[in-house]
Structures are given as C-alpha cells and as structure tokens.
Design goal:
Distance between the termini: 33 Å
Helix content: 25-40%
Structural class: alpha/beta
Shape: globular
CATH class: Alpha Beta
Number of helices: 6
Number of domains: 1
CATH topology: Rossmann fold
Largest sheet: 8 strands, mixed
Strand content: 15-25%
Bound molecules: S-adenosylmethionine
Length: about 200
C-alpha cells in the first residue's frame, strides 16, 4: 500500500476517534449490531474457544471481546494501521496481542494461526482493480492452519465513490484458485458478503 494511502487511513481513524470516542462510529460502522452480525458470520467458519486467531484490521479488538462473551477465550492477535485505535484496544484487552501496521509489515511464519479473519479492513478505495485485496487474502491464507474468513462490501447493492465494493462471484472464483474448499455467504446483511476458505482440515 502506498504511503499516502496508509496515512489517509490512519488520519481518518484518528479524526473519527476524536469525534466519537470508543464507539462503532469511530470504525465507520453504522451500529454495534451491524458490527456484531459480521463477527457472528466470521466466527461461524468454526472458531472455537482456545483457538488462535489473527484479526487483520482489528480496530479496537472488538472481535476478541465479542467472541469471549459469546463462546469463551481465544488466543487473539490483532493488527491494524491505526496507532490510535490500537491504544484503546490494548487498554480494553490486556490478554490480546496487538501489532501496528499492515499485514506485510510483520514476518509471521506460515500457518501461525488457527484462523485468520478480517472485517471491514478492505473497504478503502485503492483504485487497483482489487490487487491489494488479493495480496492480503493470499497472505492470510498462507498464515492459517484451519481457515480464513473475511468480508467485503457487495458491489451488486453498494457502489460509492468513497468505499471499495466487489462482485461476490468474482471474488469467490478467484479465492477458489487458492483454495478448493471455499464458500461465499451473502445471507446476513444487504451490502456485505463473507468468504470462508478452509485449508483441508476444516472443523
Ligand atoms: C471498518 S474498521 C473495522 C475494525 C474491526 N475489524 C471491527 O470490525 O471492529 C476497519 C479497520 O481496518 C483498519 N485498516 C484498514 N486498512 C488496513 C490495512 N491495509 N491493514 C491493516 N489495517 C487496516 C482500519 O484502521 C480500521 O481499524
């Protein structure tokens, strides 16, 4: 990602945190309910208490809090570009591990995590025909032991100049070239879809 794109994401979240404080609006989610519907769909890939999870674009680390309230503790690592959101994440989740940057800034070993997830972190328009999204998903898949779950905005129902959306079938078809056990879900919110990619030993 270009330096000016990173800076734009960091600056936007610094401003939104100043405006909204600890609230889903600071993450550009319209409500807690909408944020947590996405979490529930991601978790349904098969994440269980005790598993290790890498959350790409973790924001406040809210997935960790949500999962632990619903299902029990996980070994959670969050990575995010925004140092401001991460400050709050660390304050709220002393048991979590939080890293600043994008996925390519950290030399994780392959298959380091049971699950690698991402919610809402590929919604910035980068004007690259999806090239960055495909690099991120490829790397996420290399890092997982069991699978990857991520969501994107659905271009069939949402097209906005300031948001990146994608055609679900195109993304699913491309993911299938990385991983034969690949599924697309679009049954939970009007403008969103989720891809599950299982590495053979699906739970
Ligand atoms: C819509 S928010 C969602 C936060 C969190 N996943 C949640 O659902 O609560 C998107 C987050 O992704 C982060 N982000 C955007 N692009 C990123 C990238 N390329 N690498 C890491 N983090 C990124 C932003 O800083 C922001 O915290």
């Amino acid at each position: 990602m270009k330096e000016e794109q990173r800076k734009r994401i960091i600056d936007r979240h610094r401003d939104s945190l100043t405006r909204h404080g600890y609230h889903p609006h600071a993450l550009y989610w319209s409500s807690r309910e909408i944020q947590e519907i996405r979490f529930a769909v991601l978790a349904e890939i098969g994440i269980r208490a005790g598993d290790s999870v890498l959350d790409v674009g973790c924001g406040f680390g809210d997935f960790m809090g949500w999962f632990e309230r619903q299902h029990g503790t996980i070994r959670y690592t969050g990575i995010d570009l925004s140092p401001d959101l991460l400050r709050e994440a660390r304050r709220r989740h002393a048991e979590g591990r939080f890293l600043q940057g994008e996925l390519f800034d950290v030399a994780f070993a392959e298959h380091s995590f049971d699950w690698v997830i991402l919610s809402g972190a590929l919604n910035e328009p980068l004007h690259d025909q999806g090239a960055y999204m495909r690099r991120v998903v490829t790397r996420m898949f290399a890092l997982c032991r069991h699978g990857v779950a991520f969501n994107l905005l659905d271009a069939r129902t949402l097209r906005a100049h300031d948001l990146q959306s994608h055609q679900p079938q195109e993304v699913w078809r491309w993911c299938s070239t990385l991983c034969p056990d690949c599924h697309m879900r679009d049954d939970y919110l009007a403008n969103d879809f989720t891809i599950y990619m299982y590495r053979g030993s699906s739970k």
